[in-house]
Structure formats: C-alpha cells, structure tokens
Specification:
It is built from twelve helices and eleven strands. It has two domains: 204 residues, inorganic pyrophosphatase (n-terminal core) (Alpha-Beta Complex), CATH 3.90.1640.10; 119 residues, Diaminopimelate Epimerase, Chain A, domain 1. Helix content is 38%, strand content 16%. The chain has 335 residues and is of the alpha/beta class. The chain has a six-stranded mixed sheet, with helices on both faces. Strands 2-1-3-4-5 form a five-stranded parallel sheet. Helix 2 runs parallel beside helix 5, helix 2 packs antiparallel against helix 6 and helix 5 packs antiparallel against helix 6.
Length: 335
C-alpha cells in the first residue's frame, strides 16, 4: 500500500529534478512501455527534460505508443556513454515495473554509483530496494495504476495520450481483464481513463489484432509443440532457435504467446520454453491460481507474480522442461 507520504516524497523528488532518466526491466512488456510513456508525457508537460532508455528492444506492437524510437542500451547507447553521462546527466532516475537488479542487466554498477536519487514505481512482491523513494503497491494489477495514482495525487493533467498509455498498461498486465489480478479498482480506473480519452476498441486492435505474419507463424510452431502432462493440468510448449530462423520471427514476438495454453479447459499451469542464442532457456510460467509460479521462478533466480512469472534455466532444453515439470507436479494440489 502506497501512503500519501510516499506519494508526496515522489512528487518532491520530481519537482526538484529537471533532467530525468526513465527506464524499466529488460524485455519490456505493455505495462512497462506504457507506464514509461505516460510518465514521459507528464514530465514534459511539467517543463522537465525526460529521456528514456530501454535495456532491450520494444516489441513492434507497442510502437503506436511512441512518437519516436527509444534508444536501447548496448545497441544505440553504450554502457560507457551512459556511465560518463554522455547520453544523459540525470538529477533523478525513475525505474518502472521492477525493483530488482536481475531485471536490470548491465545497470548494477551504474545504479550503485549514480549518486542521484532513484524513484521506484512497481507492483511486484520481489525487490532489492533500489530506490531512495519507492512506490510499491503489490495489490495493483499493473504498475500503470500506481502511475495513475501518482498523477492524481499530484493533480497533474491526465491528457488523452497519457490516458491511452495507462489503459494499455493495465489492459496488457491483466490479459485484457481476464487474469485474476483484475479487480474493482482496475475497472474503476480504466473507466476514468476511457472518460479521459482512451479508446479501448482501437487499443485492442493495436495490441491483439495486429500480428505480423512471422509472429503468427511462430505461434503456430509453438502450438504444434504442445504437450499435456499430469492429467491435462499442465501444458508445456517450446520454441527452438530453428523455429525463429524458419519463421523469421524475433525474440520479442514471443510475448504473451503462452497465454494461448489457457484456452484448454483442463490446464491449471503452463510453461513456455524458449531456446536463446546463448544456449540458455528462457521459461515463462502461467497459472490459474492453483500453483504459485512466482515461487518456482524465484527458485531459479527469476521472479514475477503468483500467476505470471519467468526465469532463465541452463540447457539442454529437455532438462529444463523436466525441472519445471517436477516443480509443477510437486505444487499442484491433489485432485
């Protein structure tokens, strides 16, 4: 729960700052991207000079949120340039949708030696306490709702672009209001955002009816690998490197594909295993609630929520699959 005192501290930090650097976790999802966009617009309206840097590429279907390409660390900006303040010389750093070093690769030393205040806006349970001021609300269905609460507390204008971005943040982190984290607060705030100018029909089209052909082919490849275990209660799907080569899809095209497994009525937990170029296996986990997948992810150095989490596992692929199957089997309630 974020208190009024917490919000006031955050407002004070922002009011004192002029050059603000914004970032979020690697592999930014809709909540991360859209929350950053909303904050960027709010800061610009206040006369601040915000700059955003991402730690990996933004999925193309979130491109409609941005008016210009956001630089990616290691691709458009080197760590040395960032460290030497050649990209930005911030007097405030705002990190959204994470509070963990593990989700901020290559930024450990930068954060520890920045010498500037850090504001964290996050809704995850796990965290490393990176912020001088932290707005942490684990009951919020999306970080975007905390951003919205901050803007309301500060009485800063909610423009149409900000409303659109925050609606995207909430809609994506709730699976378009399908996940168990969707509550009355979610709907109340989204109703306010629609009144402020967010267009749900257009947003839904941009997010879910705008697949590229390669991404669609990648989804087909994933579904073709489907395995059901434990009397149909656990679904496992996978994507090997050859699947990306054959379809022409990118790693960013995998976001949310695992949710297709939730269409099977018997499935209570699901895992997507993705073979990365460096040999590691990225595992995305989903649950209907019977299994706390965050605990599984944490066991392997990852994190997330109790119904949506992820971690990196060592190769080979079959061994990674066996590890997770065992964890799911041990945690699924007996029927």
């Amino acid at each position: 729960m974020v208190t009024s005192n917490d919000f006031q501290k955050a407002v004070d930090l922002i009011n004192k700052a002029n050059n603000v650097l914004l970032t979020t976790h690697t592999r930014p999802d809709g909540d991360a991207c859209a929350s950053i966009v909303a904050i960027h617009h709010a800061l610009t309206a206040l006369g601040k000079k915000p700059k955003t840097i991402f730690l990996s590429d933004v999925p193309e279907w979130y491109g409609f949120l941005f008016t210009e390409k956001v630089p990616v660390l290691g691709k458009d900006v080197t760590l040395e340039q960032l460290t030497r303040a050649q990209f930005a010389d911030p007097d405030l750093l705002i990190i959204v949708d994470t509070n963990s070093y593990s989700q901020l690769p290559n930024l450990d030393d930068y954060l520890k030696h920045l010498g500037r205040p850090i504001l964290i806006i996050d809704h995850h349970i796990t965290g490393d306490g990176l912020g001088d001021v932290e707005l942490i609300d684990t009951a919020a269905s999306a970080a975007g709702l905390i951003v919205y609460d901050l803007l309301k507390f500060a009485r800063w204008p909610i423009t149409e672009r900000i409303a659109q971005a925050l609606f995207v943040a909430v809609a994506t982190d709730t699976g378009w209001f399908q996940f168990g984290n969707t509550d009355a607060r979610t709907f109340r705030d989204c109703a306010d955002l629609v009144a402020a100018g967010a267009d749900p029909a257009q947003i839904y089209h941009n997010l879910y009816q705008n697949f590229s052909h390669p991404r669609f082919k990648l989804m087909v490849a994933m579904l073709d690998s489907l395995e059901l275990h434990l009397a149909g209660r656990y679904a496992a799907v996978q994507l090997a490197r050859r699947d990306f080569e054959r379809t022409g899809a990118a790693q960013t095209d995998t976001e949310n594909l695992i949710d297709e497994c939730r269409r099977i009525g018997t499935v209570e937990a699901a895992a997507l295993f993705i073979e990365l170029d460096d040999g590691r296996i990225r595992c995305s986990l989903r649950s209907r609630g019977a299994v706390d997948v965050r605990q599984i992810a944490q066991k392997f150095g990852g994190g997330g929520h109790n119904m949506a989490a992820g971690a990196y596992l060592p190769p080979p692929l079959d061994q990674a699959k066996d590890l997770i199957k065992t964890e799911i089997q041990n945690r699924l309630p007996h029927q």
